[in-house]
Amino acid sequence: MQKFDQLTGIAAPLPIVNVDTDMIIPKDYLKTILRTGLGTGLFAEPRYNEDGSENPNFVLNKPAYRNAEILVAGDNFGCGSSREHAPWALLDFGIRCVISTSFADIFYNNCFKNGILPIRVAPEQLDLLMDDAERGANARLTIDLETQTIAGPDGGEISFEIDPFRKHCLLNGLDDIGLTMEKAGSIASYETALAERRPWA
């Protein structure tokens, strides 16, 4: 998993509440178990017209936001079904951080397991960040996980809270497999000792 320490990038505004995982990645794209290629299906319904052409009014199709790495979204982001394809699609598009006032629990947990930083902020802070994100090409935010701060284009700064264990995992690029591999030495020692005690097993 890619480490997350500091990110400076374009923030795209998505002022919609209750964005569910079906909107993030529709069920038509769930036939694969691969984590790559899903970026094209991200927000497919509002992003594309019925003929498959791009909807020019959707935020991620606008020139200023095509390379957005941060999403500033409305309340209860990631609700609905528990599909892990949702963070996969965000990451494959290039989104490394989602900022909202609240997240669905399963989506929130899945983000950390895939190297995406979900940040909870107060409603008044979200309003400020949404205003920053609406500046088009000037909508650049800097996310510093070590100091737990978000810096806006005008130099304003917002602090955020994060669970220390989840922070450790992101800073070090540790998913569930990575956490297990950190214990590889202890696991090997246990298996060796077990084989000596129970050679018949």
Task: Lay out the secondary structure.
Elements (H helix, E strand, L loop, with lengths): L5 E9 L6 H4 L19 H4 L22 E4 L11 H9 L3 E4 L4 H9 L3 E4 L2 H11 L6 E5 L4 E3 L5 E3 L4 H9 L3 H6 L2 H14 L4
Parallel strand pairs: 1-2, 2-3, 3-4
Antiparallel strand pairs: 1-5, 5-6, 6-7
Provide structural commentary:
With 201 residues, the protein is an alpha/beta fold. It has eight helices and seven strands; from the N terminus they run βααβαβαβαβββααα. It has helices spanning 21-24, 44-47, 85-93, 105-113, 123-133, 164-172, 176-181, 184-197; strands at 6-14, 70-73, 97-100, 117-120, 140-144, 149-151, 157-159. Strands 4-3-2-1-5-6-7 form a seven-stranded mixed beta sheet. The longest helix has 14 residues, at 184-197. The relative contact order is 0.17. The mean pLDDT is 92.
- Per DSSP, the total helix count is 8
The number of strands is 7
**What's the arrangement of strands in the largest beta sheet?**
4-3-2-1-5-6-7
Q: CA-to-CA gap between the ends?
A: 35 Å
Summarize the structure.
The chain has 201 residues and is an alpha/beta fold. The protein is built from 8 helices and 7 strands; from the N terminus they run βααβαβαβαβββααα. The model has no long low-confidence stretch (mean pLDDT 92).
